[in-house]
Specification:
The chain is an alpha/beta fold and 250 residues long. 36% of the residues lie in helices and 24% in strands. α5 packs parallel to α6. The longest helix has 18 residues, at 170-187. It binds adenosine-5'-triphosphate. Adenosine-5'-triphosphate binds at residues 16, 19, 21, 39, 41-47, 196. It comes from Ramlibacter cellulosilyticus. This is ATP-binding cassette domain-containing protein. Residues 7-237 form the ABC transporter domain. Belongs to the ABC transporter superfamily.
Length: 250
């Protein structure tokens, strides 16, 4: 495994009663790398994200963010990661700028740092014109972009995207993915992008296929296609997971 990893999971397991949600999952993300975590419904993606963000503790195994162990040094680990959750979590009554300022304050950023950073990020993501509007007046795509800006405010080294395009139309999905890919290369961010949509996974440098709590593949999409003798990632994924059809193209 890469020793410079921004994220390293080692043999992580989690059980809910009789359900083994994660079974000895190991994966890593390098700086500047986007890794797609591809799995059908129930594969364990959300459970893994709950462990990566310190919401739950693994039964066994370790999660490290830039070498900081999530169990022993959660504050140091969490300081290095930004996250966009599957469920939208914006205060719809606050203006975009007020929402971002509030989160900058939560991160303890002095306003001399946060104000120019918010301006720069709003400009960078094409949100400057809506900065004064309450979030409820924004499109779904722009709301998600505000959540992306919020996740990047404290300049994290690792970005976690948990099925963040759910509910967006195809154009907004593609745009959000492009924005994240660009932020990755501009900022050297490591990105873990969880999805059940194969077309989103095709853009990643590496694909980790999770199925029934186990990692079935960790490598490039091309290598997966070659390994399975499939013409497309969709075909390779279906062969790998035994034809389960709820990982889709859109
Ligand atoms: N709180 C819980 N209590 C009991 N079982 C759970 C709980 N959360 C998840 N599970 C089970 O653990 C397994 C993994 O679920 P998880 O939500 O992590 O998968 P997922 O890949 O995120 O699925 P989806 O794409 O549908 O969000 C599933 O069998 C699910 O039913």
């Amino acid at each position: 495994m890469n020793t410079d990893a921004v994220l390293r999971c080692t043999e992580v397991s989690k059980r809910y009663g009789r359900t083994q949600a994660l079974d000895a999952v190991s994966l890593s993300v390098a700086p500047g790398e986007m890794v797609a975590l591809l799995g059908p419904n129930g594969a364990g993606k959300t459970t893994l994200f709950q462990l990566l963000t310190g919401l739950y503790v693994a039964d066994s195994g370790a999660v490290e963010v830039l070498g900081a162990d999530m169990r022993r040094e959660p504050v140091r680990a969490l300081a290095q990661l930004g996250v966009v959750f599957q469920q939208p979590a914006l205060d719809l009554n606050l203006s975009v700028r007020a929402s971002l300022r509030f989160h900058a304050d939560l991160h303890g950023l002095p306003s001399s740092v946060s104000r120019p950073r918010i301006d720069e990020l709003l400009q960078r993501f094409g949100l400057a014109e809506v900065a004064g509007k309450p979030a409820r007046e924004l499109s779904g795509g722009n709301r998600r972009k505000v959540e992306l800006v919020r996740a990047l405010l404290h300049a994290p080294r690792l970005l976690l995207m948990d099925e963040a395009t759910v509910g967006l139309d195809p154009a907004s999905r593609a745009q959000l993915l492009e924005e994240v890919l660009q932020a990755r290369s501009e900022r050297g961010l490591g990105v873990l992008w969880a999805t059940h949509l194969v077309d989103e996974a095709e853009k990643a440098q590496r694909v980790v296929v999770l199925h029934k709590g186990k990692v079935l593949w960790d490598g490039t999409a091309q290598a997966l296609c070659a390994d399975r003798g499939a013409a497309s990632l969709q075909g390779a994924f279906l062969k790998l997971t035994g034809g389960q059809k709820n990982a889709t193209t859109a």
